[in-house]
Design goal:
Radius of gyration: 19 Å
Helix content: over 70%
Number of helices: 9
Oligomer: single chain
Distance between the termini: 63 Å
Strand content: under 5%
Shape: elongated
Order of helices and strands: HHHHHHHHH
Structural class: mainly alpha
Largest sheet: none
Length: 175
């Protein structure tokens, strides 16, 4: 009978997220993961063919955490759903600075950017229903608002400013 696997793929991804949260994406490496898990690098390369594959899995896991932030903020019903999506984005930048940088501030040259994500489609449809905009106008409005929200989130993620939730909420309402 083969030995029981002690370090799983999920353990390695969780470790990768811990390392990124603490030290940033630059610190993600097989040796750091092995040290974090108290093992050799062998389990890392048994579960992932390359470090690029592991980085992609870490990005996917970070995105799942962001999507959870988005769902929770909308479900709280403190803000209208569209505004809640912006508040969640900014909260994620504040509470998960390194993961925000990984998802939304990394060099994306060479990546194929999909402008028709499910999230974008849902937000555009929400704007169409609640504000009565055409699809094209809703899409443009969302892009303009996202640039505004991204600017605030980036300033918070980089510690350029530390606005409280009330100030941010007022600014999004005004915009």
């Amino acid at each position: 009978m083969p030995p029981k696997v002690k370090i799983t793929r999920d353990n390695i991804i969780d470790s990768a997220l811990r390392i990124i949260r603490q030290k940033g994406m630059e610190a993600l490496g097989a040796r750091n993961i092995a040290a974090d898990l108290g093992c050799s690098t062998q389990p890392v390369f048994s579960n992932f063919s390359t470090m690029e594959e592991l980085k992609a899995a870490a990005i996917q896991a970070a995105d799942a955490l962001y999507q959870d932030y988005l769902r929770r903020e909308i479900d709280r019903c403190e803000f209208p759903p569209y505004k809640a999506s912006g508040m969640a984005y900014i909260r994620f930048a504040r509470e998960e600075r390194q993961l925000f940088r990984l998802l939304f501030m990394r060099n994306r040259s060479g990546e194929k950017i999909d402008e028709t994500t499910e999230e974008l489609e849902q937000l555009t449809a929400l704007l169409q229903r609640t504000v009565g905009l055409s699809r094209e106008d809703a899409f443009l409005f969302h892009l303009e608002m996202w640039m505004y929200v991204h600017g605030i989130a980036t300033m918070i993620a980089t510690s350029y400013l530390e606005w409280d939730q009330q100030m941010i909420s007022q600014m999004l309402t005004d915009a």
